[in-house]
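User: Hey, my collaborator sent me this sequence without any context and asked if I could get a structure. I don't really work with proteins. Can you help?
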Amino acid sequence: MKKLSGEFLSNVHAALGKANASALSNEEIGDLLRRTLKGNDPYVELPTLQAGASTASRFATFDGQSLQRLNSMLPWSSFRAIGNGDILGTAWSQNKRNTAAPYPDPQVEGLHGRIDLTGMSVLELGCFEGHHSLSLAEHCSEVWGIDGRIENVIKTLVQVWMAGMEDRVKVNLVDLERGPLKQQLSSLGRDRPFDLVHHRGVLYHLSDPIANLIQCKDVCTKHLYLHTQIADHRQVDVELTHDGRRYAAHAYQEPLQRNSPFAGLTPVAHWLTQDSLTSVLMDIGFAKIEVIKLDEERNGWRVELIASR
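Assistant: No problem. I've predicted the 3D structure and written it out in structure-token form, which is a compact way to encode the shape of the chain:
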């Protein structure tokens, strides 16, 4: 089945944002949209999904037209099956996020097999489009999902609403680069720490990963789950410092595509090496570190681990 790609929808929304921020004439708006629409095929071919049980409690009231409107209303970057062969969302492109996100998420289930998530309170950094949020809520008593992009907050809210999980999942706009995490959470009415910080796909997009890890320690009492890109020793070109200690890192130039969900929000991010990451975690009070997986992927090495206090 053919659907509009998330990349195309994101570009259209970015163009509309520019038009909304300026007093453009009809002709200027038309030129802006024409430039946006020109070029690549806006459609992606998605696999036909098997009809099955619904994973969205509110889907029963949806007609086909309402679902189509919802899927084109937001700049989705991924999709999941919600029953009867239908999907919520779309692929980012023909080659990226072009298969349905599994539910429940296998990484969350693997984490649950290592540390019992039952009844835990969880802070999820970078909720993206809510796939991990929903899976965490299957086990945890409370999930706080935060993201620095308002579109991701809205898409996660839609996922949570569609799944009928509003009582377990709260979603907020929090930019980790804007200020201390504990302070931002307090401004939202959350002063109690969490049992677990779920930190997947975010650390390597941050300008100061050490400060962020310290802030994570300040808001969790038990575990930090971390999945992040790390630097190979051959990539090391800078040293980050904290309390007189030095940590090897790589300065990565972010593409700064604000409308892309796969880029950071600052011009330069810093990737720690595995040794530096381990040292930082131990130096700030995470006494036990369990490496779940270490893989070399298309963009380099990634590590998945659990750090416990």
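In plain terms: The radius of gyration is 20 Å. You can pass these tokens on to your collaborator as they are.
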